[in-house]
Specification:
Blueprint (H helix, E strand, L loop, with lengths): L7 H29 L4 H37 L3 H28 L1 H9 L4 H33 L3 H25 L3 H26 L16 H32 L4 H17 L1 H19 L3 H28 L1 H5 L6 H34 L3 H26 L6 H23 L10
């Protein structure tokens, strides 16, 4: 009889801190928006528009980290700790170099990028967005360092550590926001500076813990790390499809955002605030999906396919339960939640419709369309998920947004949300069929 790699209690111990970590990571952008809301809807729009870009960057860096962690988790499952150590060192180097490159692009192309993505914004919105984007760009190498360090600690089973550092980051961000925005009256600049400093401090702290807090892998001093072709290829073969999938998803969201900007400031603010709130509603499924990288990845590495499927099935069911609770609560409390943002009555009305419709569709389709994808990725089935994600995103969410706006102009910004729901439904159907089959279980790292 084969050894049980993860009990239910052990899985709960892994995923619950991850869910809270995802909540705290999403909270940085949300708190920035809430705390600048007193300045006006121009500030809300500026911070929210740049936060879409930040989500893209974070998703790319997280996806790169995920590719490396899939390799690391499967090596740990095989008890090949030397290979796992090599994978960790390569992962950190690759992701931090990517973050540095993204910083350079953001700083060099600041207003050009904002103009290309969002078209002609009002001057006050563009000025605030440019300031917030500059400070965000400087933070990208630190976001990269945090993403890969947290991913490694999760893969080694230290999920509470990354949760505690995420909590620390948010506490620092809120405290500095209070000082910079309300005491020093620095407005959007203060919000951006608070996010930059909190990310910088916590990422360096978490990176140091790779050497001080975990004892599974004995890492060499960072200055001795070098890239080699074999390990880099193993990581990039999974990291590139995963990061492409994630980046294409957010690029599609940004293109859709350009459609939203044509409906005016109220539509921009309502859409931005509602999407920020829904990020929290997705946290149970997102945290469970990240936990699958460790849980299912190790099962696949140990060649325990039956346990991989059983554990993944249990976690998907758990995602549905937790996600359903969050969605029902958001539908009931939509006016109160959106009331935190000091919105105008017109903007508040639009946002309530968005949150209520979201609660219905999300509770039914989101876990199957997104959490299940991570079960497939953790086994190495990354090319399939990239293909489906890209096709669904561009066919339904991007193409559908432009088409529906032309066909039903009276629905305005709601067309964008209808197109998003079509994307989720298509993904859920395809991933359900893939998960029921056997192909995804035979994709492990060679």
């Amino acid at each position: 009889m084969s050894e049980t790699l993860f009990t239910r209690r052990q899985m709960h111990g892994i995923i619950l801190p991850l869910i809270m970590e995802q909540v705290f990571m999403a909270a940085i952008g949300m708190f920035d928006v809430i705390m600048v809301s007193g300045i006006g809807e121009d500030a809300i729009s500026a911070v929210s528009l740049v936060d879409f870009i930040n989500q893209l960057i974070n998703s790319v860096l997280t996806a790169l980290s995920t590719g490396g962690v899939i390799v690391c988790s499967q090596y740990v499952g095989r008890k090949n700790l030397d290979a796992a150590k090599e994978a960790v060192q390569h992962l950190v180097l690759i992701v931090v170099l990517a973050g540095t490159a993204l910083m350079a692009v953001a700083l060099a192309g600041n207003r050009l990028i904002l103009g290309l993505l969002y078209g002609s914004l009002e001057k006050s919105v563009m000025d605030n967005a440019s300031v917030y984007f500059t400070l965000s760009g400087i933070s990208y190498p630190f976001i990269a360092l945090f993403c890969c360090s947290a991913a490694v600690m999760r893969a080694l089973g230290y999920t509470k550590l990354s949760f505690h550092t995420s909590l620390t980051m948010n506490i620092l961000n809120i405290l500095m926001n209070g000082v910079f925005i309300f005491l020093l009256k620095w407005g959007v600049f203060g919000a951006g500076l608070a996010s930059l400093l909190s990310r910088m401090i916590v990422s360096l702290l978490l990176f140091s813990m790779l050497f001080r807090k975990q004892d599974m892998l004995k890492l060499a001093p960072p200055l001795t790390w070098r890239l080699n072709k074999k390990t880099s290829s193993a990581i990039l073969s999974l990291a590139i499809p995963t990061s492409l999938e994630s980046s294409i998803f957010y690029i599609g969201r940004l293109l859709v955002q350009s459609v939203v900007t044509g409906f005016g400031t109220s539509a921009i603010a309502a859409n931005a605030v509602s999407l920020t709130v829904t990020e929290f509603l997705h946290m149970p499924g997102a945290g469970i999906g990240i936990g699958m990288i460790t849980i299912v990845g190790r099962c696949i590495g140990a060649d325990e396919k039956k346990q991989a499927r059983e554990n993944a099935s249990y976690l998907i069911r758990l995602a549905y339960i937790l996600q359903g609770i969050c969605c029902i609560a958001s539908m009931i409390l939509a006016p109160q939640i959106l009331g935190l943002y000091n919105l105008t009555p017109q903007t508040l009305e639009i946002g309530v419709v968005m949150l209520v419709s979201h609660g219905v569709i999300c509770g039914i389709f989101w876990p199957m369309g997104f959490t299940t994808a991570n079960a497939l990725k953790s086994a190495g089935d990354v090319k399939f998920t990239m293909t489906i994600s890209t096709t669904s995103m561009w066919l339904c969410r991007v193409g559908g947004s432009y088409l529906l706006v032309r066909l039903f102009p009276a629905l305005g910004v709601y067309n964008v949300w209808i197109a998003m729901y079509c994307d989720w439904i298509l993904r859920a159907g395809v991933y359900f069929l893939r998960f029921r089959g056997e192909k995804w279980l035979d994709k492990k790292v060679k």
